[in-house]
């Protein structure tokens, strides 16, 4: 085994962007994912879905200590929670948070396969039968060409950062490929005051034809 893979050090371009919008190409990545709808501040299912993702992610990381070492495994830090956000009814807008739709996810290292994901699910079922692991899916996503920036502050202040991203797109002759957006949560909202929370905001984009 090599040294421990620390995403904060080795994947800085993906997870520690500048506080101004920048263009980046995001490669294909593997994730455990759980989808849902509703207000993340009040929905019990939202917190439950986060718990599912962390249970599966730590089950993978702890496999060697449980007697099974996957091929290609090396020690690593569990990746941060991410969410791809949209609206159940676009006409309703963002004012009503019950209108939110989301897919929460945690990235997995490259060695994780469908078989390894299944082993992780089995381990969670055995150790924590109350965790609804069957709600989760394992798959690959590739954002490709994207614009992202670091947002510091409360989630409700994100529109100001999105406005800067929109201005960047206009200046660079770019357009969004979808109205969905990705957030990567670098702070634990339970332990970090809102004004200090750090969140990566990302849009998938494409060049506007001349």
From TrEMBL:
Database matches in Pfam families: GyrI-like
Gene3D superfamilies: Regulatory factor, effector binding domain
Domain annotation GyrI-like small molecule binding: ranges: 20-200
Superkingdom, natural source: Archaea
InterPro entries xrefs: GyrI-like, GyrI-like_CCH_Lin2189-like, Reg_factor_effector_dom_sf
Protein name stated in the entry: GyrI-like domain-containing protein
